What does this fold into?
Amino acid sequence: MTELPITSSSESKDRSRISAWRDPASHARIWPVMMIGLIVDLWTKHWALATLESTPDRPGRAIEIIDGYFRFALVKNPGAVFGFAAGAREILITVSILALLFMIFLFVKSHPDHWLCHISLGMLLGGALGNIHDRVFQNGLVTDFIEVDLGFWPADPWPNFNIADSLLCVGVVLLMWHLFRLERKSRPEHSEGGAAR
It folds into this structure.
């Protein structure tokens, strides 16, 4: 009879301490999330340019989704969020590339059980690559087309954005939540409470 291998608790702990870079499951989380986010962002931008942009044959238009609150309206943003650093194409590309390298560094330093970190980094990588694509191939102009107007500040209206921006925002929130959980687990009182149970 063949005996099944038994994984000791020490082996499990050792695995949790290795770099996520050496763990196939970690790669299976971060890269598909990045690719799906990037593909959706680029496809929706292509749709917005083909549908909403003015051409010699037709004027530009907006598509109302929820009248007065939510619509698709094309804006070409020469800067970052809120139009910050407008026209500074090379600086924005450089900063974005440095951010990409930092995200990969965070992935390497993470562990296989940090699944929330890997999902958030995948979203951040996809969002950053989506906007870098526009800055490189669209003459520094990022395609924004989602407009939300809730009738009160700061969404009165909120500056137009795209799927990449959404990925970046959600990715930052998830990464902060992951870091909060790590910090909470590392508190001495948390460890003592776990031992008492």
In short: The radius of gyration is 22 Å. The chain has a mean pLDDT of 87. Helices lie at 9-17, 24-52, 89-109, 115-137, 163-186, 188-196.
